[in-house]
Amino acid sequence: MPLSNYALLGALLSASLANAFTPLADKRFAYNQIPYKVDTDVGLPRGTQLGYNQCNSTTEGPNSLCQTAVINSLDDFCLWAPSEPGHTVGDIEGEMIAWCSKPGHGTRVMPKGTITGVQFTRTPDYIQVVGFMDQTKINMVAGDDGGEMDPHGADRRGNPIGGLVYTNAWTGGYSQAVEWHNFNGANMFCFKACDPKGPKAARYCEHIYDIMGCGFNAPSNAKEGVFESCASDSQDPPGQYVNAAGQTTTWRQGDGNPPYTPRIPSSSLCSTFASTDIFDKATNIPIPTPSAGSQSSSSSISSGSSSLPTSVSTSHTSSVSSGSSSASHSSSSGTSSRPASSSTTASTTPSRTQDSSNSPSETSNNSGAGKSATSLSMIAFTALTLLYVVA
Ligand SMILES: *[C@@H]1O[C@H](CO)[C@@H](O)[C@H](O)[C@H]1NC(C)=O
Ligand SMILES: *[C@@H]1O[C@H](CO)[C@@H](O)[C@H](O)[C@H]1NC(C)=O
């Protein structure tokens, strides 16, 4: 073809490279260098980022559209929830905003009584909060079985689009949790942030089991009415199990029902509180450091933990100590107020795991995700056709 066409082709190629799309999970920001909006893409099928990522005392409160969440400790964490009532998680996962358990992050602040039980755990691989809530207090629809937020999604812009997650639990300063997942629904929540220094961060924070809920993706010992901060063994990566032949293998969503029940890792060194201690006043809450010693007491760990490289637990344990000195907080005033009905533990309510086929989770709105994917491939097809015509 004529030389001028090569020039035109080159111009088109460099234009498309200049506008190269970066998936959310590839974006890294130091905490003090977070841009106003992390997602600046325009003209894509799901539109523009709803809120912003620079969040401060000006943005804090009932009108906040902050999309930077933190998980720091038992009393200081956020969940992704709607900015306005009336929309299910499946409808609005791309526009979720941060609702935090306490002020100080420039976000919406959860009303009193939102969290009705929560377990914070720190493991060698991740931190997580799992618990129970009155989800209507954070604009969720009563009875909504909910779904998953994570930094991926069919178009790789994340749910919410542009959502960032940070924690000060690993180094004392804020560091970005690149891989994370948050399931909210049926008055339960789980939010896991995986330490990027760990060898399997993406696996522990897997995003492909979006209809399976907390019992599958984040099995825990969380109990209604109990508020505790613990060290823990790591879960098995979601989907991974040991089959009858003794081989470690992976079940995928869509392959019928899971052929196994996810192992609940044992938690240890728990400090238990009354909810009023942690949400109504400042209380120094320890973040226990998981160690080999703290994990050895339970036999339930050994089967699964053999699949973890032993090196995992060594690297991250030194940094936490600041908060963990206060033994005085292990007074268990919260424990005695625990409802007898601990039949509602997170471990026994993976009901969404059992009947995921009829739970109206985010994938019930497959039309939306499917449409996005189709539109994206249409764009790609159009671009290729254009290049072909030029050539
Ligand atoms: C607070 O955040 C808003 C929204 O991101 C931003 O426009 C404003 O400049 C920030 N204010 C300060 C003092 O940093
Ligand atoms: C699903 O997504 C579509 C847009 O893709 C939207 O119109 C609809 O309200 C959503 N919810 C349901 C339950 O279909």
Automatic annotation (TrEMBL):
Keywords: Signal
Location of region: Disordered: 228-266, 284-372
Keyword Signal part of the UniProt annotation: yes
Signal peptide coordinates: 1-20
Comp. bias regions, Low complexity: 290-367
Designated name of the protein: Macrofage activating glycoprotein
Native source organism of the sequence: Agrocybe pediades
